[in-house]
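G., the chain you wanted modeled:
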Amino acid sequence: MNFKESKEILNLIKRSNNILINLHRGPDPDSFSSAFSLYVFVQSLNKDASVLLVKTSELSDYLLQQKYSDLIKFVDYKSFDFNKYDLFISPDSASWQQIANDNEVKIPDLPIVVIDHHSTNERFGKINIIDPSASSCSEMVYKLLVDWKFDIDVELANILLSGIIADTGGFVFSDNPETFILVSQLMGLGANKTEIMSKMFRTRKFETVKYWGICFEKLEFDKEHKFVWVATSYEIENKFKINDSNFATLFSNIIDGTNFGVVMSEDEPKSLKVSFRGRGNFDVSVIAKEFGGGGHKLAAGAKVDGLSFGEAVEKVLAVCRKYAK
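Predicted structure as tokens:
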């Protein structure tokens, strides 16, 4: 067995009838893949299942093109009725706040199973499987499905592999040999690595590339502290409406003479999304934690709410410079 909790979780699923599975706010492909892999499994047991996403979030162009994206239920957790459900499965979410996106929303009173690979996980479930050594939550879900002896077909293998590829930045952020063994197993089941990587990293709308051009124009190099950064205001974000984190993944951590890159975007007024990407051995997750965020050593994220665009940017830069030393 990959996880000692696997049997307990399976029994809990079998005893349940109406099951909730969540995507975290601002879902990435790993959130999507792990959630819908679990959805496919739960459906195979003839259980009713719903995949929830807080209504203030949007899907990236990549996720909008994926099968099952039309099944996502956008909800307001403040008014959502949990009473008719008997199980909540939470993959790839380090905290309840990352799910509900509202500090006033309390954790629901029903069994919660947390499956996550972030070391910062707050263990808010009845059962918590946390494995920081895993490259992604999709990797963990794959191991669970193996424990449950589930027959993984080509479609599901592709879903799982896409989550692993995304969270490793195309295998840039992971050097765990076990990850590559699992990838080879998924490819053996029919997953198409080349096609996934082409769609994920080498297929973009013209408008996205134009948006990247503005990011390049605004890119700044703090040579003293050895990092690059870019910040785009709500005016720019609202004009282009590009929900895409690949500028951070593809460009912010490739500049010679730097230890990390920071990409900031004001998606809503007084709400700054921040993506950190490290180079070499520089751990950007410690910076993200300063803002209540988290992630991996080489890829992390956070939000800064309640400040004007300029104030939020300066706050992020100040913390970056502190840790850059």
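The longest helix spans residues 29-44.

Shout if anything looks off.
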